[in-house]
Amino acid sequence: MAEIRSTMDLVMERAARIGKASSEELRQGEARTRGMHLTVDYLDGKSARLLDELEREDAAVQMAIRRGMVESLLRNIFLARDDVQLERVTRASQGLVELAGNARDVASICQELRHIIDGYTRHREQLRHQLEEQVRAQYEQALAQQMGEQAGGLNIDPTLQPKFQEEWNRIEAELDSQYLQALEQYKTTLKQRLRA
Q: Quick one: what percent of the chain has pLDDT higher than 70?
Protein backbone atom coordinates (compact mmCIF):
# COMPACT_ATOMS: atom_id res chain seq x y z
CA MET A 1 0.00 0.00 0.00
CA ALA A 2 2.88 2.34 0.78
CA GLU A 3 4.25 1.84 -2.73
CA ILE A 4 0.90 2.69 -4.27
CA ARG A 5 0.62 5.80 -2.18
CA SER A 6 4.14 6.96 -3.01
CA THR A 7 3.49 6.40 -6.72
CA MET A 8 0.24 8.32 -6.44
CA ASP A 9 2.07 11.11 -4.58
CA LEU A 10 4.61 11.29 -7.40
CA VAL A 11 1.86 11.53 -9.98
CA MET A 12 0.14 14.29 -8.03
CA GLU A 13 3.40 16.21 -7.60
CA ARG A 14 4.10 15.96 -11.30
CA ALA A 15 0.59 17.15 -12.10
CA ALA A 16 1.09 20.12 -9.77
CA ARG A 17 4.39 20.97 -11.46
CA ILE A 18 2.74 20.80 -14.87
CA GLY A 19 0.13 23.23 -13.63
CA LYS A 20 2.91 25.60 -12.59
CA ALA A 21 5.15 24.99 -15.61
CA SER A 22 6.05 28.02 -17.59
CA SER A 23 5.20 28.26 -21.24
CA GLU A 24 8.91 27.80 -22.04
CA GLU A 25 9.07 24.58 -19.99
CA LEU A 26 6.01 23.29 -21.81
CA ARG A 27 7.55 24.26 -25.15
CA GLN A 28 10.78 22.42 -24.30
CA GLY A 29 8.81 19.35 -23.16
CA GLU A 30 6.84 19.32 -26.40
CA ALA A 31 10.08 19.66 -28.35
CA ARG A 32 11.58 16.69 -26.49
CA THR A 33 8.50 14.65 -27.38
CA ARG A 34 8.85 15.83 -31.00
CA GLY A 35 12.40 14.49 -30.99
CA MET A 36 11.12 11.11 -29.84
CA HIS A 37 8.56 11.03 -32.65
CA LEU A 38 11.20 11.98 -35.22
CA THR A 39 13.34 9.13 -33.92
CA VAL A 40 10.51 6.63 -34.33
CA ASP A 41 10.19 7.70 -37.96
CA TYR A 42 13.95 7.32 -38.39
CA LEU A 43 13.97 3.86 -36.83
CA ASP A 44 11.05 2.82 -39.03
CA GLY A 45 13.00 3.94 -42.11
CA LYS A 46 10.72 6.90 -42.89
CA SER A 47 13.61 9.35 -42.72
CA ALA A 48 17.23 8.84 -43.69
CA ARG A 49 19.13 11.14 -41.32
CA LEU A 50 18.27 12.46 -37.88
CA LEU A 51 20.45 15.54 -38.30
CA ASP A 52 18.48 16.58 -41.38
CA GLU A 53 15.28 16.32 -39.38
CA LEU A 54 16.82 18.24 -36.48
CA GLU A 55 18.06 21.05 -38.71
CA ARG A 56 14.53 21.59 -40.08
CA GLU A 57 13.29 22.45 -36.59
CA ASP A 58 13.27 25.84 -34.84
CA ALA A 59 16.74 26.60 -33.48
CA ALA A 60 15.28 27.58 -30.09
CA VAL A 61 14.11 24.02 -29.42
CA GLN A 62 16.73 21.98 -31.26
CA MET A 63 18.55 20.99 -28.06
CA ALA A 64 15.33 19.68 -26.49
CA ILE A 65 14.48 17.81 -29.69
CA ARG A 66 17.99 16.33 -29.71
CA ARG A 67 17.57 15.20 -26.07
CA GLY A 68 14.34 13.46 -27.03
CA MET A 69 16.09 11.81 -29.96
CA VAL A 70 18.94 10.55 -27.79
CA GLU A 71 16.54 9.22 -25.14
CA SER A 72 14.52 7.38 -27.75
CA LEU A 73 17.62 5.95 -29.46
CA LEU A 74 19.01 4.70 -26.15
CA ARG A 75 15.70 2.98 -25.39
CA ASN A 76 16.07 1.14 -28.68
CA ILE A 77 19.41 -0.39 -27.71
CA PHE A 78 18.40 -3.73 -26.21
CA LEU A 79 19.21 -7.42 -26.36
CA ALA A 80 17.87 -8.35 -29.78
CA ARG A 81 16.43 -11.83 -30.19
CA ASP A 82 15.77 -11.81 -33.93
CA ASP A 83 16.90 -10.09 -37.12
CA VAL A 84 14.14 -7.47 -37.07
CA GLN A 85 15.11 -6.39 -33.55
CA LEU A 86 18.79 -6.49 -34.46
CA GLU A 87 18.15 -4.15 -37.39
CA ARG A 88 16.39 -1.70 -35.07
CA VAL A 89 19.27 -1.79 -32.58
CA THR A 90 21.77 -1.25 -35.39
CA ARG A 91 19.80 1.71 -36.72
CA ALA A 92 19.56 3.19 -33.20
CA SER A 93 23.32 2.97 -32.71
CA GLN A 94 23.88 4.58 -36.12
CA GLY A 95 21.57 7.40 -35.06
CA LEU A 96 23.57 7.95 -31.88
CA VAL A 97 26.81 8.16 -33.84
CA GLU A 98 25.19 10.60 -36.26
CA LEU A 99 23.92 12.85 -33.43
CA ALA A 100 27.42 12.81 -31.92
CA GLY A 101 28.86 14.19 -35.14
CA ASN A 102 30.50 10.84 -35.95
CA ALA A 103 32.68 11.16 -32.85
CA ARG A 104 35.09 8.25 -32.56
CA ASP A 105 34.41 7.59 -28.89
CA VAL A 106 30.66 7.28 -29.48
CA ALA A 107 31.26 5.09 -32.54
CA SER A 108 33.58 2.91 -30.46
CA ILE A 109 31.01 2.56 -27.66
CA CYS A 110 28.31 1.67 -30.18
CA GLN A 111 30.63 -0.93 -31.69
CA GLU A 112 31.14 -2.42 -28.20
CA LEU A 113 27.37 -2.49 -27.74
CA ARG A 114 27.06 -4.43 -30.98
CA HIS A 115 29.70 -6.91 -29.78
CA ILE A 116 27.73 -7.42 -26.56
CA ILE A 117 24.49 -7.96 -28.45
CA ASP A 118 26.13 -10.32 -30.96
CA GLY A 119 27.76 -12.22 -28.09
CA TYR A 120 24.40 -12.45 -26.35
CA THR A 121 22.77 -13.85 -29.48
CA ARG A 122 25.46 -16.50 -29.96
CA HIS A 123 25.54 -17.42 -26.27
CA ARG A 124 21.72 -17.65 -26.15
CA GLU A 125 21.58 -19.92 -29.21
CA GLN A 126 24.36 -22.12 -27.84
CA LEU A 127 22.67 -22.53 -24.44
CA ARG A 128 19.30 -23.24 -26.03
CA HIS A 129 20.79 -25.89 -28.31
CA GLN A 130 22.61 -27.54 -25.38
CA LEU A 131 19.43 -27.60 -23.32
CA GLU A 132 17.43 -29.05 -26.21
CA GLU A 133 19.96 -31.87 -26.62
CA GLN A 134 20.07 -32.53 -22.87
CA VAL A 135 16.27 -32.70 -22.54
CA ARG A 136 15.94 -34.82 -25.71
CA ALA A 137 18.50 -37.33 -24.37
CA GLN A 138 16.70 -37.54 -21.01
CA TYR A 139 13.30 -38.15 -22.60
CA GLU A 140 14.69 -40.68 -25.08
CA GLN A 141 16.35 -42.56 -22.23
CA ALA A 142 13.16 -42.54 -20.15
CA LEU A 143 11.08 -43.74 -23.12
CA ALA A 144 13.60 -46.45 -23.94
CA GLN A 145 13.31 -47.76 -20.39
CA GLN A 146 9.51 -47.74 -20.55
CA MET A 147 8.91 -48.90 -24.13
CA GLY A 148 12.08 -50.74 -25.07
CA GLU A 149 12.81 -50.96 -28.80
CA GLN A 150 9.49 -49.33 -29.74
CA ALA A 151 10.78 -45.97 -28.50
CA GLY A 152 13.51 -45.86 -31.16
CA GLY A 153 11.27 -44.48 -33.91
CA LEU A 154 9.74 -41.64 -31.88
CA ASN A 155 10.72 -38.10 -32.74
CA ILE A 156 10.75 -35.95 -29.60
CA ASP A 157 10.59 -32.15 -29.71
CA PRO A 158 12.27 -31.19 -26.43
CA THR A 159 11.03 -27.59 -26.65
CA LEU A 160 7.47 -28.79 -26.06
CA GLN A 161 8.35 -30.45 -22.78
CA PRO A 162 7.45 -28.59 -19.55
CA LYS A 163 10.87 -29.37 -18.11
CA PHE A 164 12.52 -27.63 -21.07
CA GLN A 165 10.36 -24.52 -20.73
CA GLU A 166 10.98 -24.26 -16.99
CA GLU A 167 14.74 -24.66 -17.33
CA TRP A 168 14.97 -22.39 -20.38
CA ASN A 169 13.11 -19.59 -18.59
CA ARG A 170 15.60 -19.82 -15.72
CA ILE A 171 18.66 -19.90 -18.01
CA GLU A 172 17.39 -17.07 -20.19
CA ALA A 173 16.65 -14.86 -17.17
CA GLU A 174 20.19 -15.36 -15.85
CA LEU A 175 21.71 -14.71 -19.28
CA ASP A 176 19.62 -11.59 -19.82
CA SER A 177 20.63 -10.26 -16.41
CA GLN A 178 24.33 -10.65 -17.15
CA TYR A 179 24.21 -9.06 -20.58
CA LEU A 180 21.78 -6.29 -19.59
CA GLN A 181 24.16 -5.17 -16.88
CA ALA A 182 26.96 -4.69 -19.42
CA LEU A 183 24.59 -3.06 -21.89
CA GLU A 184 23.34 -0.57 -19.30
CA GLN A 185 26.87 0.49 -18.40
CA TYR A 186 27.60 1.43 -22.00
CA LYS A 187 24.23 3.14 -22.38
CA THR A 188 24.95 5.24 -19.28
CA THR A 189 28.29 6.24 -20.77
CA LEU A 190 26.60 7.21 -24.04
CA LYS A 191 23.96 9.21 -22.20
CA GLN A 192 26.66 11.15 -20.36
CA ARG A 193 28.69 11.63 -23.53
CA LEU A 194 25.68 12.91 -25.46
CA ARG A 195 24.39 14.88 -22.45
CA ALA A 196 20.84 13.65 -22.75
A: 85
